[in-house]
Design goal:
Blueprint lengths: L4 E3 L15 E4 L1 H5 L4 H9 L2 H12 L5 H10 L8 H8 L6 H10 L3 E9 H11 L3 E10 L2 E7 L5 H15 L6 E5 L5 H6 L2 E5 L3 H6 L2 E3 L5 H8 L2
Parallel strand pairs: 2-3, 2-6, 3-4, 6-7, 7-8
Antiparallel strand pairs: 1-8, 4-5
Helix pairs in contact: 2-3, 2-5, 3-4, 6-11
Length: about 230
C-alpha cells in the first residue's frame, strides 16, 4: 500500500489560529501538472532522452539547477516556437489539482505557482486554474525559432523562496500560515520556510527534508494535511 501522508511532528510548526487565511505555493512541472514541460519540448526537438536525463539529475539535486536549465534550453535551439502550442495540449493537471485550488479559493486563500519551466506554458495553466500568482522562466524567440536561451531572471530555488515570502506579505498571510508543495531539490528552501512544507511524489532528498510527504498523486490530500494541523 502506498504511504499517502507521512508526518514528522518534530519539524512541524505550531499553529495558533485554527482558521487562518492561507497562501498555497506550488511547483508546476510534476506537481501542478503530471509532465516535465522541457522534456516534452525536447521530445519534439529529437533530443528528449538527453534533456530528460539532465532534468532527472537536476531534480535529484545532482546538478546546479541554473546550469542544468541553461544546458537543456541550449539543446532547444532552432525548435519552432509553434511547438509550444502542441506541448501545451499534452500537459495534464495532476489529479485533484483543480479541486485543491477551488477549495483554497472557497476558503478565501490565495494560490501561487513557482516554476523553473516556462511562462509560455505556465500562463495558460494559470488562466485555466484561476491561480493568483505565478513566476516562471521565459524562452527567447527569434524569427519564430527558439534561440536556445532564456530571457530575464532565471527562476532558481532562491527565487522560489523569495516569491513565497513576497506573496505572503502581499496577501497579508503570516509565514506560519503558508503552504509550499514541490517535488524537486530546488523546492526544498521554500518547503522548509513555509508553515507547512509538503514533498509531493518527490525525489528522495525532498522527502527527507520536508515535514510532510505525499506519495500518491492526488493534490486533494494537501487539504487533508492542512485540515489535520
Amino acid at each position: 500500500m502506498h504511504n499517502q501522508t507521512l508526518q514528522a511532528p518534530n519539524n512541524s510548526p505550531t499553529k495558533t489560529n485554527a482558521n487562518p487565511r492561507r497562501l498555497l505555493v506550488m511547483d508546476v512541472d510534476s506537481t501542478l501538472i503530471d509532465e516535465e514541460v522541457i522534456d516534452l519540448i525536447g521530445d519534439a526537438s529529437g533530443k528528449g532522452a538527453l534533456i530528460s536525463d539532465i532534468t532527472k539529475r537536476a531534480m535529484r539535486g545532482e546538478l546546479d539547477f541554473r546550469q542544468a536549465l541553461d544546458e537543456r534550453v541550449s539543446l532547444l535551439k532552432g525548435v519552432p516556437v509553434s511547438v509550444l502550442e502542441d506541448v501545451f495540449k499534452e500537459v495534464h493537471f495532476t489529479n485533484g489539482a483543480l479541486d485543491m485550488i477551488a477549495t483554497a479559493h472557497d476558503r478565501g486563500w490565495t494560490v501561487g505557482v513557482v516554476s523553473g519551466g516556462f511562462h509560455e506554458i505556465v500562463d495558460g495553466l494559470v488562466a485555466q486554474a484561476g491561480i493568483d500568482h505565478a513566476i516562471a522562466n521565459s524562452l527567447q524567440v527569434h524569427d519564430g525559432l527558439l534561440t536556445g536561451s532564456t530571457v530575464g531572471e532565471t527562476v532558481t530555488k532562491e527565487t522560489k523562496l523569495r516569491a513565497l515570502r513576497a506573496w505572503a506579505e502581499q496577501d497579508g498571510v503570516d509565514m506560519a500560515d503558508t503552504v509550499a508543495i514541490g517535488d524537486g531539490a530546488n523546492d526544498i528552501p521554500m518547503i522548509l520556510a513555509a508553515g507547512t512544507g509538503i514533498a509531493f511524489c518527490a525525489k528522495p532528498a525532498v522527502r527527507k527534508a520536508a515535514p510532510y510527504t505525499l506519495n500518491v498523486r492526488d493534490l486533494r490530500q494537501v487539504i487533508s494535511i492542512i485540515d489535520g494541523l
